[in-house]
Amino acid sequence: xxxxxxxxxxxxxxxxxxxxxxxxxxxxxxxxxxxxxxxxxxxxxxxxxxxxxxxxxxxxxxxxxxxxxxxxxxxxxxxxxxxxxxxxxxxxxxxxxxxxxxxxxxxxxxx
Amino acid sequence: xxxxxxxxxxxxxxxxxxxxxxxxxxxxxxxxxxxxxxxxxxxxxxxxxxxxxxxxxxxxxxxxxxxxxxxxxxxxxxxxxxxxxxxxxxxxxxxxxxxxxxxxxxxxxxx
Lengths: 111, 111
What we know:
The structure is a homodimer of 111-residue chains. Chain A is mostly beta strands and 111 residues long. Chain A contains no helices and 10 strands. In chain A, strands 1-2-3-10-5-8 form a 6-stranded antiparallel β-sheet, with no helix packed on it. In chain A, strands 4-9-6-7 form a 4-stranded antiparallel β-sheet, with no helix packed on it. The relative contact order of chain A is 0.26. Chain A binds chain B through residues 1-5, 28, 30, 32-33, 35, 55, 57, 59, 69, 74, 80-86, 103, 105, 107-110, and chain B through 1-5, 28, 30, 32-33, 35, 55, 57, 59, 69, 74, 80-86, 103, 105, 107-110.
């Protein structure tokens, strides 16, 4: 199936995972995957969280920022691909002056 | 972790899933996910296959083509996101005159 994010109503999540500000996302969800296009305005973050039964792949579409992954910062810019395997922890941080736009897949793998 | 596809040696897969020609890919693999950047030259295809325990998300980076998904053709161009949920079948077809470049995630969900 084709996923057209523009046809999926936006969801605004304040303080996602204890982060700053809000995340705006267009998300396709089923029992196996969350597939989303998301936006973080300057200063907004997704808080640090561990993927206990899932993982996450994030592709940066536009903007710059960083992740905190297992205690180390990784820089992000358009084209960057960040992977948080199951059992690891990360956050997503827009420390820039422009919107950070990303595509993400959160697969559920089970315990 | 950051995945830099340019630092991953390319894998050439002839007749992938019974398809035409070959797929060139740079792939990060663990027990939970295959994360890849792939290229299909004009006329090349990934053959029809069913995702019995996994699923697949494909984002088109450049070029045009189509998928055959559960018996229906879906057109693809840069920015298209195709999703094949677990239990469904698809193929990927480059019926254009230029390379089709894509990013894909194949998560394993178990039975």
